[in-house]
Design brief:
Blueprint lengths: L2 H6 L2 E2 L15 E5 L3 E6 L3 E6 L2 H10 L1 E7 L8 H8 L5 E10 L6
Length: 107
């Protein structure tokens, strides 16, 4: 299992049929700040990605996000490429992260 997936509490989708588990907040959580999402993990580490206001609203509404980590770099350009990428379940890890809104965020 790739080290980053293990640290984030993600599971191999090939070995875990059905919905991926919710990762305990003490391991990792998704923090929204109005501009994007930050994946806080291991107490000090942080991954971030810019998002849209619609994405942030949907994440707040659902209360969780689905985090997918692939062992191969993404080089696709369309939904067909994404379908092909996601079909390699032995190379993907997933987990659901609880959503938190950073204090002071205008939302």
């Amino acid at each position: 299992m790739p080290l980053v997936a293990e640290v984030l509490g993600l599971v191999s989708i090939a070995d875990h049929p059905g919905a991926p588990p919710i990762v305990p907040t003490v391991i990792a959580r998704a923090v929204l700040d109005g501009y994007g999402v930050h994946i806080d993990y291991s107490g000090e580490a942080n991954l971030s990605h810019p998002t849209t206001s619609e994405w942030i609203a949907a994440a707040e509404d659902q209360g969780v996000i689905m985090l997918t980590l692939g062992m191969d770099p993404w080089a696709g350009r369309n939904l067909d490429d994404l379908d092909c990428y996601l079909s390699r379940s032995e190379r993907l890890f997933m987990g659901r992260l609880r959503v938190h809104v950073r204090a002071g965020t205008d939302r």
